[in-house]
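Regression test case RT-17, inverse folding.

Input:
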């Protein structure tokens, strides 16, 4: 299916777990299938992205609460420190920066940068005007630069 890979790519960067991402993408397509009688063909693509992102957002929220309640947070930080040492490109820095973005900016960045959607396509998925897409993308990229510079500065000081 043409949309499966791009939707998976966006969802994966939302939940950062390949198994969860596969499950969420499958669930999004099942929900779309169940709505098929009410969906116009031209709205299928934006709708499947919207369903998938909403499912991923809900899963992420539940996962955060579960981690907080069980104390897994400290264990995960140790794991990410070990992962960072193994990865010279430090993808974890980018992941942490994306995770710190407010949801409205994260949605726009993932759809425009990861899924490669145009502003018009992102606007249809999120039901917002193109100008809002552009301003949110611009602000998200500014915030990512700042977050990555702060992390880089703190890593230099720690060395």
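Golden output:
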């Amino acid at each position: 299916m043409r949309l499966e890979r791009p939707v998976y790519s966006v969802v994966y960067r939302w939940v950062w777990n390949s198994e969860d991402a596969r499950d969420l993408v499958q669930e999004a397509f099942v929900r779309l299938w169940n709505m098929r009688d009410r969906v116009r063909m031209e709205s299928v693509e934006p709708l499947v992205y919207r369903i998938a992102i909403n499912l991923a957002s809900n899963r992420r929220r539940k996962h955060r609460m579960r981690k907080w309640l069980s104390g897994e947070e400290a264990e995960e930080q140790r794991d990410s420190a070990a992962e960072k040492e193994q990865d010279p490109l430090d993808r974890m820095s980018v992941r942490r920066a994306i995770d710190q973005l407010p949801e409205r900016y994260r949605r726009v960045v993932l759809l425009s940068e990861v899924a490669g959607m145009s502003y018009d396509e992102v606007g249809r998925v999120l039901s917002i005007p193109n100008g809002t897409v552009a301003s949110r993308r611009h602000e998200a990229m500014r915030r990512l630069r700042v977050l990555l510079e702060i992390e880089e500065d703190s890593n230099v000081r720690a060395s």
